[in-house]
Amino acid sequence: MKNIPIFFAFDNNYTVPAAVAFYSLLNKANNDIFYEMYVLHSDINTENQNTLHNIVKKAGNAELKFIDTQGFMSDEWKKGSFNKGHDNSKFTADTLIRCFAARFFPNIDKIIYSDVDIVVMDDISELYDIDIENKYIAGVKSVFSKYKPYELSHLSNNYYNMLKDSYIGGGIWLMNLKKIREDNIEDRMIDIVKDENIIKRWPDQDIINIACLNKIGFLPLNYISYPYLQDLLKLPEFTSNYSREEMYDSIINPKIIHYAAMKPWNGTPRYADIWWAIFEYLKLPKTSIFKESFKHNKTKKYKLLFKIALTISVILAISLIIILILFINL
After folding, report:
1. Can you name the residues that pair with 273 across neighbouring β-strands?
2. How far apart are CA 206 and CA 189, in angstroms?
3. What is the mean pLDDT of each run of 10 residues along the chain (330 residues)?
């Protein structure tokens, strides 16, 4: 049995997406894989913790531990130079916590980090075997920064020139905690957090990329398959740090689908049906993060139209029968 440590960092609101992510991760794991799962958090209540514990326990191939971060980075978050990136992004102090895994896991040398707005489509255990001995972290390079200058336009010219072709996004990281501790990289991260001259549009990503500059490795794009990439590939002007073949491979052979930007619980991204199928299988509740999704609105609309059409058909049929009866009697 191969044990793989993996951690997540989210708040109480994201328990339901986490449940979907956890189930998909464990459901797709190879038989010889056992996940040591951790959640770094500041406010997940007992009821929601129990919900996630039950999913992991039923799977039987993992154990789950919650680590209360005791408000770590909350003060820095309130007064730091952060913003939301774009209208659909919502960040919290828990966003920063994922950068500081080395302090929360002092006895672990290498660990996987994953977002929870995902569905795992295949076993991802090979990820843990990637050699990052001389790197602090490995992640998936930004797919869109060449096409959308806004993505990195907040960086100073110096950082932009050094990171434009190597900036890694969120979603999933492989972190070398041993080397991060040895080189005191977390001190560098704290300096970046506190530096008001460094605008953090994408808080965790900006901190990690700047602090780990020149010691960053890269993961295949199919570990973060973006639902909307297929639409962008149809545009002749679209450019990326990845080749066309790599981008299509991430669509055809996804390891992980990452619902970046539009979420299944408040929109209709591609592959939303996969997320909803797991949600319904687990009989999860809709919470405050849910909006009436277009998918469900459409379903309700079609059901209503069907009922109306059926009612009209019945009325017409009855009317026709009555007319026939009257005609015969004449």
Report:
1. none
2. 10
3. 96 96 98 98 96 98 96 78 55 85 97 98 97 96 82 89 90 97 96 89 93 96 94 92 94 96 92 97 94 52 56 71 69
To the nearest 10 degrees (0 to 180), the angle between helices 294-329 and 272-281 is 80
d(CA 103, CA 114) in angstroms, rounded, equals 17
Measured CA to CA in angstroms, residue 224 lies from 122, 156, 203, 217 at distances of 12, 27, 19, 15
Are 129 and 245 in a shared domain? yes
Residues 158 and 102 in one domain: yes
* Tens-place pLDDT, residues 277-322: 999 999 999 999 997 644 444 444 445 555 666 667 667 777 777 7
User: Within 13 Å of residue 80, how many CA atoms lie on the same side as its CB?
Assistant: 28
Residue that is written with structure tokens 């993505």 in the block: 151
Judgement on whether residues 307 and 221 belong to the same structural domain of the protein: no
Asked whether the beta carbons of 24 and 56 are under 8 A apart, the reply is no
Q: For residue 325, give its domain range.
A: 292-330
* Strand (E) or helix (H) holding 322: helix 294-329
CATH code of the domain in which 37 resides = 3.90.550.10
Measure the CA–CA gap between 126 and 115, rounded to whole angstroms.
18
Closest CA to 132 of 190, 178, 100, 87: 178
Q: How far is 59 from 37, CA to CA, in rounded Å?
A: 13
The reply to whether 189 and 298 lie within a common domain is no
Claim to verify: residue 28 and residue 109 sit in the same structural domain: yes
In the chain, the number of structural domains is: 2
Among 112, 141, 137, residue whose Cα is nearest residue 35 = 112
